[in-house]
Amino acid sequence: MHTNQIIECVPNFSEGRDMSIIRQITDEIEKIEGVRLLDVDPGKATNRTVVTFVGHPKAVIEAAYQAIKKASELIDMSKHQGEHPRMGATDVCPFIPISGISMEETAAYAHELGKRVGETLDIPIFMYESAATKPERQNLAIIRAGEYEGMAAKLKDPKWYPDYGTNTFNDRAGATVIGARDFLVAYNVNLNTTSVRRANSVAFDVRENGRIKTDAKGKNVLDVSGEPIRIPGACKSVKAIGWFIEEYGIAQISMNLTNINETPLHIAFDECCKSAQSRGLRVTGSELVGLVPKSVLIDAGKHFLKQQKRSVGISEKELIHIAVRTLGLDELSPFDPSKKVIEYLMEDKTSHPLVQKTLTDFANETASESPAPGGGSISAYVGALGVSLGTMVANLSSHKVGWDDKIEYFSQKAEEGQKLKDTLIDLVDADTHAFNKIMDALKMPKATDEDKAARKAAMHTATIGAIEVPLKVMRVSLESMNMLKEMAENGNPNSVSDAGVGAMCARTAVEGAALNVRINCSGFDDKEYVASALAQVNEMLRNAKEMEGEIINVVEKLI
């Protein structure tokens, strides 16, 4: 529903025993607005703490910088000992794209942080994985070879000059590796067996590394250089092993999916089912360890619906429900998407107060003496209802007996409708937020010339916002009329009247939002902007009237 960019950051700090030090570092993260601390996982033996937080890229960079700075002040690497390989107070700091952002953009943010840390904190910085500056620096283990103790000598080698910062060793903070990598999903698949050997046989079938080839006598088959030949498994970027979980009395295939673009969760699950069945076993469910991006479950829901030859154009909530039920994510314990999906944990429930209401409460709020929600929010909501009707026609048509060859077409149209509906739902509250910003600007002081200038600037920005939101309502509602027309012409004839009502709603949304644009333009002093906005309004009004006429003609002929 939201197109906000979200990245995850998982810094590893070389302190796992002194909780007061760890708390001081995580406090720095929590101070930054726009960031949410999700997990703090200290290890005594490793003397290392893995911290997970998410947020908007700029906020995440700021939080990461402050945490690295605090760690460099509190952790003395010259006294550090632990089981885990390490080279710095902040040992590694990866960024992971979660939603609305590419790997390239994420890597650019990693470089922004690397440069800032290197220049201001005098810590040698190496960039790795997707942010690596050289192929040999992609692998973290290669960069970290020699660890903290070998770093002073390593930095003197021109091949190992850091990407940012000085090649003078910082004996207190050590060196830090910063980068961008894919999201890693820790995922376990449950089997109806207690045999670790059987679970391993499935793991070897599935994982990329596969198994060692053996001859008829069970001996390893070697290549010309004497190394064992491996038979690769079905899934790229998947590591897997079988184990027995005493708590549940079952064996599991424990997997790390290191690149969910190469092997999504649902494909790994399907391959486990296929292998298990071929070995007389059955997959009974699965469990997610930690958090996942929303796309992981939505893609799984769509995949399973396509297998059933059903429309994928259903709501996000329903898609996730299908994924959870098919994957059996609730077999071992209840599965709550609001606690397992990163975007839901990030969501600010207070930012959408209107659409959280019941229909009755929404109507009552509109009917109250408060000026908002007003005509703009109502126009957006009417538009959402209109395109929802078109989406319903698409979904009903995809189930029509004898129309199996049209499932993909109607599924695609329903998916299109869901996206338009979600955008319009977001605009319901956006319109009220825009109105509130004008109210806030009007309340600003105007005692001095400086006050007056600040108030005028705030009013200008707020007025443009109050015009842009209804303009977007018009554009999206008008776009929905194309889909509504197709559903009137091609959809299930029994539902044609619904497409007609949808078209009427869409035109009402366009005309209602146009009134909003016009009232906010009146008296606005940016004449050039006003002229452009009103020209767009007039064109969209013409198009909406024409489109509604065409759709109603189709409806009238069919009924």
- Work out the strand percent: 5-15%
**Rg from alpha-carbon coordinates:** 29 Å
Distance linking N and C termini: 36 Å
Morphology: globular
- Sequence of secondary-structure elements: EEHEEHEHEHHEEHEEEEHEHHHHHHHHHH
CATH topology of the largest domain: Four Helix Bundle (Hemerythrin (Met), subunit A)
Within CATH, the superfamily of the largest domain carries the name Formiminotetrahydrofolate cyclodeaminase monomer, up-and-down helical bundle
Instruction: Assign the structural class, choosing from mainly alpha, mainly beta, alpha/beta, alpha+beta, or little secondary structure.
Output: alpha+beta
What CATH architecture of the largest domain would you give?
Up-down Bundle
The main sheet comes to:
7 strands, mixed
Number of helices: 17
How many extended strands? Answer: 13
**Unreliable stretches covering 5 or more consecutive residues:** none
User: Helical percent range?
Assistant: 40-55%
Q: Can you describe this structure?
A:
- By secondary structure, this protein is an alpha+beta fold.
- It has three domains: 6-180, Formiminotransferase-cyclodeaminase, Chain B, domain 1, CATH 3.30.990; 185-346, Formiminotransferase, C-terminal subdomain (Alpha-Beta Plaits); 349-558, Four Helix Bundle (Hemerythrin (Met), subunit A) (Up-down Bundle).
- The protein is built from 17 helices and 13 strands.
- The chain has helices at 19-30, 57-74, 103-121, 140-144, 147-156, 196-206, 265-278, 294-307, 316-327, 337-340, 342-346, 359-367, 375-398, 407-442, 449-490, 496-521, 527-558; strands at residues 6-9, 12-13, 35-43, 48-55, 90-99, 125-129, 176-180, 185-191, 211-212, 230-231, 238-245, 250-257, 283-289.
- Strands 1, 2, 3, 4, 5, 6 and 7 form a seven-stranded mixed sheet that branches.
- A hairpin with a 4-residue loop joins strand 11 (238-245) and strand 12.
- Helix 6 packs across helix 7 (265-278), helix 8 (294-307) packs across helix 9 and helix 13 runs antiparallel to helix 16.
- The longest helix is centred in the last third of the chain and has 42 residues, at 449-490.
- The two termini are 36 Å apart.
